[in-house]
Every structure is written in structure tokens, then in C-alpha cells.
Amino acid sequence: xxxxxxxxxxxxxxxxxxxxxxxxxxxxxxxxxxxxxxxxxxxxxxxxxxxxxxxxxxxxxxxxxxxxxxxxxxxxxxxxxxxxxxxxxxxxxxxxxxxxxxxxxxxxxxxxxxxxxxxxxxxxxxxxxxxxxxxxxxxxxxxxxxxxxxxxxxxxxxxxxxxxxxxxxxxxxxxxxxxxxxxxxxxxxxxxxxxxxxxxxxxxxxxxxxxxxxxxxxxxxxxxxxxxxxxxxxxxxxxxxxxxxxxxxxxxxxxxxxxxxxxxxxxxxxxxxxxxxxxxxxxxxxxxxxxxxxxxxxxxxxxxxxxxxxxxxxxxxxxxxxxxxxxxxxx
Length: 331
Description:
Layout: H1 11-20, E1 30-36, E2 39-45, H2 55-65, H3 68-73, E3 75-78, H4 82-94, E4 98-102, H5 108-116, E5 120-123, H6 128-142, E6 145-146, H7 153-169, E7 175-179, H8 184-196, E8 201-207, H9 212-219, H10 242-251, E9 254-258, H11 260-272, H12 280-290, E10 304-308, H13 315-330
Parallel strand pairs: 2-10, 3-4, 3-6, 4-5, 7-8, 7-10, 8-9
Antiparallel strand pairs: 1-2
Helix pairs in contact: 1-7, 2-4, 2-7, 4-5, 7-8, 8-10, 11-12
């Protein structure tokens, strides 16, 4: 896959981001989950980040590059939860205020996480477009700097450090499965790994009811979905980013979709088999492997990595999942 466009994030930029985020983000473990479907599976545990998700990498990368005056004046973002928590944590660590515009349907655990990190929370609408419009208006009115959730080179570079760590921890990786919302994570992971190991296969995974990136690939440009719906609340943008689409178009081998029941099954499998608490969005990549959806796209040999993008699951949802599994086994 040949890439010549100059507007794509470079490997040097991703490596520079790794040096910027060391005090704010963790180098997360790559856990050997054994053999699944005849393949060696490793899990990249971004659910173990301080914020509970990979988003701290991009947020820290961007805030570190703002001027001291910009940080003091404050930042704003729009988020269903994980990016908001990450921005709030990074802003607090660097000594500035943060405002997060969240959907009216945001899970309580994520709202509480943003507030615990010291950010002001505003609610507006249910779609990413509505949140963005409100955040842009607040940024102008209050002199705040916008920290986009995915469609910015600094954000993509920060998320790309996940790919660097996979490449360093598993040099012979054959394929990486990555959850896709707006596309920042898969853009960064693919930009890093395709340059480090061009033969690696990168497969994006979206919920069937929120396949904005898959539709963009089919159309040849980002398109706006009429609606998006899934149990994976972190993967619901109704439109892929312009810059993230360019990265996906250049580096990603395929985009597949998984149904909600497959995502819930993957959450259960991760808990009972790998002993990991992972939210629905974070379990999407594993779901693509366990359900068989990704099987025909995988290379014949070599280890597979599934990125667990987050672990901010409400206790009541987790309890319900585990009770369902207990009832199934007992029955």
C-alpha cells in the first residue's frame, strides 16, 4: 500500500507524541489471551489507562502542544464520555480548566468521570454534530481552545502511540483489529504500524448500526448517517472525520461491522476468559474475531492483536451481563 500524501500524520510525529505523553498516559500491557480460533490472540489493554480509555493519549499530545496562555484560558471539547474524561484529566494535570459538551444520553459513569476530573459539563443533543456545534459556539464566546475528539493531526499522532507499542511489543504481529468511532485511533495505529511493518493487516470494526467509516469507504468520502445506534456508546459518530478518512483510505485494509449481541458476548468473554472489564466500545474488535466476521480477512499465519479501547462500563450494566451469563450456564 503506497502512501504519498503529505497531509497524513508521519511516523516521526507519532514518535514525538510518545515522548510528550509519558507523564500522563501509561504504556499499557499487551496480554497473551491464548489461542482463539486457531490463532494466537493478544489484547492491547487501553482499558487500563488512567482515564479508562485510549483517549488520554491524543488529549495529552494536543494539550502539551498548546501555549501556556491557551492552557490557562481553558479548553473545550465535545464527547460521549471517554475523550471528555481524557481532556479533563490532561487539562487538570497541566494547570488549566476544561469544558466538555456531552450528549443528553451520556452514561452516568462517564458524566461522573468527567466531573471528577474537574471539568465543567454541558449537555446538548444526542449526536456528535449537535455536540460539536454547541462546543464551537462556547469556544468563541468564552475564548476556549477546541480539542477535537478525533479529526486533528495531534490527536491522531497521540493515538498512534498505541500502534508504536504494539509494534515494539509484538514485532511479528500479523493483523490488528481496532474499534472505529470517528477514526482517530485506527488512523494513528495504522499510520504507525503500516510504516513499521507494511505487511501487517489493519482491520477496523464498527457497530452495524453506526458504520459511518464503512459507508465513507464505499462512497469514497465521508458521508453523514441519518442516525447511529448501538450498545457501544463510544462508537456512534454519524460522520467519519475528513482527516481520519484520509488515513483509513490510505492505510486500513478493511472495515467490518459487528452486531450488538456479538459485542455483548465479547464483553462476557473478556471478563470470564481474560478477566478484563471492558466497555462495549472497547470490546468491538474482540467481537469481530470471536464472531468470525474478521476471519476471512486475517492472514494465514501470525499473531493477532485486538485493541481494547476502553473499560468505562457502568457497574449495573456489567452486573446484568454477568447475571445473563450465569443464567445461561445454569439453565
